[in-house]
C-alpha cells in the first residue's frame, strides 16, 4: 500500500453564525482526527478564511491543516470521520483540498457522496499520488459552477 507525506486543508462550515458552537464542534473534530494518527492536525488562526470559503459568514467557517502520511486506508478513515461528523453535528459542508484538488461534501445522497469520495481518493494514488487537477464537488439543489 502506497503512503506519502502530504498536507490537506479541511474547511468546515457549520452554517450558523455562532463562534462558540464552531469552536466546540471543531475541537471535537480535531480530537477525532488526531485519533487517526496521521501526523499533525492544526487549526488555522482565527480570522483566516480558508480557501473555498467564499460567500459565507466568517463566524461559521474555519479551517484545519492536516499533515502527515496518507495511505488509501488513512484517507478512507479520514473521509468516514468527516462524513460521520457532518451527520452528527449538522454541519453545512466540509471541503478537503490538496493543491487545488477539492472534495466538497454536502447535500448529497449517501451513494453519490461515496462515489465522489472514491473518485477523489483514487486521484491521491495515481502516479505516486500526484493530483490530476480536477475538482470533485458535491452540489446540492441544482447548484452549478459559475
Structural descriptors:
146 residues, alpha+beta, Alpha-Beta Plaits, six-stranded mixed sheet, 3 helices, 6 strands, globular
Shape-level CATH architecture: 2-Layer Sandwich
Number of strands: 6
Please list the strands of the largest sheet in the order they lie side by side.
2-3-1-4-5-6
Can you tell me the number of structural domains? 1
Major β-sheet, in short? 6 strands, mixed
By secondary-structure content and strand pairing, the structural class works out as: alpha+beta
The CATH class is identified as Alpha Beta
Please tell me how large the radius of gyration is: 14 Å
Give me the strand/helix succession.
Answer: EHEEHEEHE
Q: Layout of SSEs?
A:
Elements: E1 3-13, H1 19-34, E2 39-43, E3 61-71, H2 72-89, E4 93-98, E5 101-105, H3 110-125, E6 136-137
Parallel strand pairs: 5-6
Antiparallel strand pairs: 1-3, 1-4, 2-3, 4-5
Short description:
This protein is α+β, with helices and mostly antiparallel strands and 146 residues long. It contains 3 helices and 6 strands. The protein has a single domain (3-137), classed as Alpha-Beta Plaits (2-Layer Sandwich).
Amino acid at each position: 500500500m502506497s503512503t506519502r507525506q502530504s498536507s490537506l486543508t479541511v474547511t468546515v462550515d457549520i452554517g450558523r453564525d455562532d463562534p462558540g458552537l464552531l469552536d466546540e464542534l471543531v475541537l471535537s473534530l480535531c480530537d477525532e482526527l488526531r485519533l487517526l494518527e496521521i501526523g499533525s492536525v492544526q487549526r488555522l488562526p482565527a480570522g483566516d478564511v480558508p480557501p473555498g470559503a467564499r460567500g459565507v459568514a466568517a463566524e461559521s467557517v474555519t479551517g484545519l491543516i492536516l499533515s502527515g502520511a496518507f495511505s488509501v486506508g488513512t484517507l478512507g478513515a479520514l473521509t468516514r470521520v468527516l462524513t460521520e461528523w457532518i451527520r452528527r453535528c449538522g454541519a453545512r459542508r466540509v471541503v478537503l483540498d490538496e493543491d487545488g484538488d477539492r472534495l466538497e461534501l454536502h447535500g448529497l445522497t449517501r451513494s453519490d457522496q461515496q462515489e465522489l469520495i472514491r473518485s477523489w481518493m483514487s486521484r491521491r494514488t495515481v502516479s505516486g499520488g500526484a493530483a490530476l487537477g480536477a475538482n470533485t464537488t458535491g452540489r446540492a439543489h441544482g447548484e452549478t459552477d459559475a
